[in-house]
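Need tokens for this chain, all 422 residues.
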Amino acid sequence: MSDSIPSQSSSLDDWLCYLEQIHPANIEMGLERVQNVADKMGLVHTPSKVILIAGTNGKGTTAQCLEKLLLSQGYSVGTYASPHLIRYNERVRINGGELDDQYHVDAFNSLEQGRGDVPLTYFEYGTLAALAIFKREAVDYVLLEVGLGGRYDATNIVNPVASVITTVDLDHKEYLGDTRELVGYDKAGVFRSNVPAVVGDLDIPHTVVDYGEQINADLCLSKRDFIFTEDEATFNWQMGKLSLTFAKPAIPAQNAATALSVLAKLDLLPAVTDIADCLKQLQVKGRFQQLSKEPLVYTDVAHNRESARYLATRLQSLQAQGKTIHAIIGMLGDKEHADVITAMAPVVTHWHVAGLDNPRGLSAQQLTAKVTQSVKVEGTYEQVSDAMRAVLPQLCAQSLLIIFGSFYTVAQAITFFDNERA
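Here are the structure tokens for all 422 residues:
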């Protein structure tokens, strides 16, 4: 493609290439630039009610749970998520469905014309384009997943009817800080005065509560204002005098409890039967997603300490049923590799390492050097697909293969099986 600005007749791929090329190398932090463009284009003050969702892990799952619960009541819902696994179109959904390329092309075209000479990052373009699409479709509710942190994230230009922090843990330490208190303070930047602020973390850093109280946010905290319990078969959520029990969902109960608490604060809880149906059917792509039954293969985006711990607990129950766990891991260079491996080491018997052909990805050799500090590696492969071709024939009826470590790792695993089945 040439260096010229794409047009309304250009392809979505052309636009994405263009946005990647003009992404500013050095750009001032803060919301002023993106706020100015949004105000100029009328993207913020719309009739849609916005729920802003921050958190280290669980944002996508919580958003999808909220999406289904709102849809069950007849509301129209726009959802913005990142990153995508396979296609950019996954980032913007209307009523649970992806949109044709032209929706994104139209939004990028109007944004390019409307921004003037204001520089924007790739994520800022994507956020504003999503808001333009939601305005065009006049949805009742908008669910915005925060990209990084909260306080200075492009999504934080909106005026939400509720703000959410799903969990707080260490990730992106170079930007957010190296303690949970610092990370929590940054994420609490999505709170607003006198607006519901729901926090699902089970060990909430004091900085989150301190900031919420300082600005007089309407705090709704796990273990104080709502609680949940779960066993092998059931999930119970309690808030005030309300206590509801359901079959245990496939998603983390913590995320389900957080979503229910958000809707309760907004007086938007569906009928109990609708909640039960939604939780029973809800599965999130790339989150402990089963790719194959014979052999048994799962994939998961777990790439930090907290998500790896949760994945390990899911695998423990299968290990207790006699399954031997094989793992293929591929990770980006800026993640806490030791924490992830330590969390997974007790459940994984056979380790295999794959490289990620990505500017931020670790090569197979680089990741192997890190993994072998804690566990024994049985195979090293240049790509995830190479690892899968080598490992799958080794599996038997009592084997389980988990492919994890990054969104990129999961995307390659899904693509491999899609191509195999084609």
